[in-house]
Amino acid sequence: MERYSLQKVIGEGSFGRALLVRCKSTQEKYVVKEVQLPKNPSKLENSRREAILLSRMKHPHIVAFREAFEADDLLCIVMEYCSAGDLLQRIRQQKTTQFRVEDILRWFAQMCAAAVHIHDKRVLHRDLKSKNIFLTDNGTIKLGDFGSACILNSSKAYAHTYVGTPYYVAPEIWDNKPYNNKSDVWSLGCVLYELCTLRHPFQASSWRSLILKVCRGAYPPLPGRLPYELQYLLKQMFKTNPKDRPSLHSILTSHRVSRLLRAHLPPQVRAQPTHTRHLLLQQRSSPKPAAKAEGRFPESGGRLSRRTPRARCWPMPASPRPTASHPPTSQVQDSCSNVQPRRTTYSTRV
């Protein structure tokens, strides 16, 4: 930390502290996330997971990684500072004034582009919510907080452990079923609904009522002032069967709403025709042929094959009870032991 001067503490939680610092040599501001390192060697690598993942994610709409180091039993992750705060703060600032449709489309397109990038790397974020989406001074979206993320063994593998913030968790996770990147699609649907209405789609006074609403996909309809394409998209993102939800690739390229989102896509994606983009994205995300079973979602709702590839995770700890007023800020997290750290990437400054 000798290269940085502390400005102030900007956040505290179960993970540790978030500090605003200034680089002494460049005078640039950064955020340092301090994470307490466990004594158990097997859990030590899991604590380093966020730094490892973030260092691999280079995208204009993902919080940029600068460096990571360990000092005094702390893992310090130095990352880009988003001075406009998070999207939850921005939503609360609106109070009763609705966002412009143009702003909703721009932000949603940017967060989808970021999520597509991590899905292409077989990474599930697993805690997509407005509090983990940040804004720069010029209003650009930056996806952050990879503390709950998990790398799958293959593009057709599934995770099995409960992780996330209850109000944003997809129904298949509540049903204790295996899940893939379609659970992130559900969570982004919750964020889109918040942008459209300034409130969460699933609100309840008890844990049981919340789970029932989520598993039924029961939410108040969007205001009539919004484009039909947005209302149709949200209905698709909130399909309780993950197989029926669109992928983020299709939302950005071939869905009804892609015409509205196209102007807000990153230039490297927007420059190609819609059909070509869709084919390229499909090819890029297609797995190599494998001799073993592929581990798809069972079409008839049956059980997964014994040979289905899985993300190796630690057992689920006890879950906190949500409140009616606001989603809990603490998350129930697990550790994915199939994430292998790459020392050169972890320690190299960007």
UniProtKB/TrEMBL annotation:
<keyword id="KW-0547">Nucleotide-binding</keyword>
<feature type="region of interest" description="Disordered">
    <location>
        <begin position="265"/>
        <end position="350"/>
    </location>
</feature>
<keyword id="KW-0067">ATP-binding</keyword>
<dbReference type="Pfam" id="PF00069">
    <property type="entry name" value="Pkinase"/>
</dbReference>
<feature type="domain" description="Protein kinase">
    <location>
        <begin position="4"/>
        <end position="258"/>
    </location>
</feature>
<dbReference type="InterPro" id="IPR001245">
    <property type="entry name" value="Ser-Thr/Tyr_kinase_cat_dom"/>
</dbReference>
<keyword id="KW-0808">Transferase</keyword>
<feature type="binding site">
    <location>
        <position position="33"/>
    </location>
    <ligand>
        <name>ATP</name>
    </ligand>
</feature>
<dbReference type="GO" id="GO:0005524">
    <property type="term" value="F:ATP binding"/>
</dbReference>
<dbReference type="InterPro" id="IPR008271">
    <property type="entry name" value="Ser/Thr_kinase_AS"/>
</dbReference>
<dbReference type="InterPro" id="IPR017441">
    <property type="entry name" value="Protein_kinase_ATP_BS"/>
</dbReference>
<comment type="similarity">
    <text>Belongs to the protein kinase superfamily. NEK Ser/Thr protein kinase family. NIMA subfamily.</text>
</comment>
<dbReference type="InterPro" id="IPR000719">
    <property type="entry name" value="Prot_kinase_dom"/>
</dbReference>
<keyword id="KW-0723">Serine/threonine-protein kinase</keyword>
<protein>
    <recommendedName>
        <fullName>Protein kinase domain-containing protein</fullName>
    </recommendedName>
</protein>
<dbReference type="GO" id="GO:0004674">
    <property type="term" value="F:protein serine/threonine kinase activity"/>
</dbReference>
<feature type="compositionally biased region" description="Polar residues">
    <location>
        <begin position="326"/>
        <end position="350"/>
    </location>
</feature>
<dbReference type="InterPro" id="IPR011009">
    <property type="entry name" value="Kinase-like_dom_sf"/>
</dbReference>
<keyword id="KW-0418">Kinase</keyword>
